[in-house]
Amino acid sequence: MFAPTQPITTTMNDFRAESLANEELARLQKYIKEFPVSYVYTHQASSKDPLTEKLRKSMTSNVKSSAHRSLLNPKNRGEFGRNNRKFVHDDQQVFSFAKDDLKNASTKIPARLFGPLASYIKSIGQISCSEIRGTCWLVGDMLVITNYHVYMLINKEREKQQNPNLPITVTFDYLRSGQTEHAVTIEVDEEQDPQLEDSRLDYKFLRLKECKGIQDRVPLGSIVRNRQLQEGLVIIVGHPEGNEMQEETCVVVSSYSWREKLRRRHDKFIERHIDNPDPSLHMTNEHLLRSSEKYKDCLPYDTSFFSGAGGSPVFDLNGNIVAMHTQGYTLNVEGGQCSLMEFGVQFNAICDDMKRRHIDVKEFFPNHNLDVDEQSMNQ
Q1: How far apart are CA 169 and CA 286, in angstroms?
Q2: DSSP one-letter string for 162-218
Q3: pLDDT value at position 2?
Q4: What is the value of pTM for the model shown?
Q5: From which residue to which does the signal peptide run (predicted)?
Q6: Per-residue pLDDT at 316 exceeds 70
Q7: Are 240 and 306 in contact (CB under 8 A)?
Q8: Would the pLDDT of 100 be above 50?
Q9: Residue in 230, 288, 294, 298 with CA at minimum distance from that of residue 260
Q10: Considering Cα of 177, then 178, then 184, then 190, what sign does the dihedral take?
């Protein structure tokens, strides 16, 4: 692929060279375009740009977790060559870009978080009503928070079944698929509804009926922080697709570039279907590209969590909750859905909204203003 005077191994391992010849970059651009966007989202290389460390990181920082499961599995490599089998076998340079960032960035979290997270997951539950599923978590004594849109879906389900009394339940300890014998299920006490919610920021508080089975659970309101994230990694814990609890480490997409990245990803999917149009391919949540006010407080990231994970807590690498997973931008394709980008609402926005309602935020999130230095001193 590259001229023998400058082997790729030297370029990959020593970025003091800073750039490649324009001809080589043009070739790189060609192969990047051919790489299936559904596996790795790449920066559009240009023959005018040097292949610097920054560019390489940009090319691979938004690799989705599905790439980790599929791209790095030797059994699946043939699948990546179905349009250009030569790519898989001959062009290991771009493959190495993705593999390097997946290994060293996308899945790496501090081991010190393992202990706290193991405790926190006992306070994260699956909220359900008939066929509707979502995620919620304990904020305080018998008080949980979830997405407002999850609650609205529950109300629609009640209307559909013409049964306004369908119970809403929260199940904790659902950790193995299909195994709920050790789970703790509690009904929501709708007569004690806190009436604390907001449709724009997509949050809703609910109160559970008294239950001794969760008295030893750690309320997570004390680890909520209102710091606004712009980059880095986050950890989402929830019940995607209504399944057992799962965890995923995700790359935050910069707030100043997420619309550009989202549009580019969408266009790439459409481009791939130009020669073979699929009538089932269409956009959902298209308003994300147009809206500015509604999503100014969002935290965009790449994750495979979407349906059923609404309400999941989003942790930073300090082990604090900084956002709540809400929704995303998806494509309906070939009878299924493909997530292009997902979003969480940051707690700095939720805390500000509660203050505007003259609510004592510290009653729910007592340490929301604690910064990293203060937290370190108190630990």
Answers
A1: 32
A2: T-TTPPPEEEE---BTTB-TT-EEEEB-GGG----EETTTTEEEEEBPP-GGGTTSP
A3: 39
A4: 0.63
A5: none
A6: yes
A7: yes
A8: no
A9: 288
A10: positive
Using 50, 70 and 90 to split pLDDT, how confident is the model at 303?
low
**What is d(CA 145, CA 113) in angstroms, rounded to the nearest whole number?**
23
pLDDT score at 376? 41
The closest of 150, 229, 149, 215 to 184, measured between CA atoms, is 215
Q: How many CB atoms lie within 10 A of CB 119?
A: 11
Highest mean pLDDT among 6-15, 279-288, 312-321, 339-348: 312-321
Distances from the Cα of 58 to the Cαs of 43, 54, 208, in angstroms? 6, 6, 45
From residue 273, how far is each of 268, 333, 369 by CA, in Å? 9, 10, 48
The first and second tokens of residue 118, run together, are 């193991």
Find tokens 């023959």 and name the residue: 47
Cα separation of 217 and 222, whole Å? 13
Where do the domains of the chain lie? 232-374
- Portion of the chain with pLDDT greater than 70, in percent: 51
Instruction: Check the CA dihedral 356-358-364-369 and report its sign.
Output: positive
Helix, strand, coil % over all residues of the chain, rounded to 5: 40, 25, 40
Predicted confidence (pLDDT) per residue in 132-156, tens digit: 999 999 999 999 999 998 999 999 9
Pair 37, 54: CB distance under 8 Å = no
In the structure encoding, which two tokens stand for residue 321, read together? 């909750």
Q: What angle do CA 320, 305, 225 make, to 5 degrees?
A: 15
User: How distant, in Å, are the alpha carbons of 198, 211, 319 from that of 173?
Assistant: 28, 14, 20
The CATH fold of domain 232-374: Thrombin, subunit H (2.40.10)
How high is the pLDDT of residue 282?
A: 33
Mean pLDDT taken over the chain: 69
What are the Cα distances from residue 308, in Å, to 94, 151, 228, 245? 34, 12, 25, 11
| Confidence bin at 296 (pLDDT 50/70/90) | low
Residue written as tokens 């009878």?
Answer: 335
